[in-house]
User: Fold this.
Amino acid sequence: MRAYQRRQLKQDQFVTTTRETFSWAAEHRDPLLWGGAVVGVIVLLAVGTWFYMQRQEQEAEAALGQAMALYNAPLSPAGTPASPQIRSFATAAERATAAHAAFQGVASQYPRTRSRVANGAAVSVDDEKRKPAP
Assistant:
């Protein structure tokens, strides 16, 4: 009989607490709705910002890849006709100038991404441009 009474007391406390909670929520309905709306807007802004930054990161990586392709483009020997499929340069200075511009473009267009390393690459390419040709 005692176990039954203890279960009844626990159930009654749960029921009472639940009723009080719902009663409080009904009394404070408007502030709760406003608070929920504010939290919802904040969550939407955070998720939207995250998706935007991910898209920017992908675009920056693609642009950095193109700049790296310019930096690694082959030099074509003098008198060799240019191939339309492969970008090549006549001199290392031309290639360095094109790569420098590409790296600078990536660094300035995507300053808040990990591809900002392009700025360091542009400086390195700029140093390479200053080296005398062998």
Summary: Helices lie at 2-27, 29-71, 92-109, 117-130. The chain has a mean pLDDT of 82. Residues 35 and 75 are 63 Å apart (CA to CA). The radius of gyration is 32 Å.
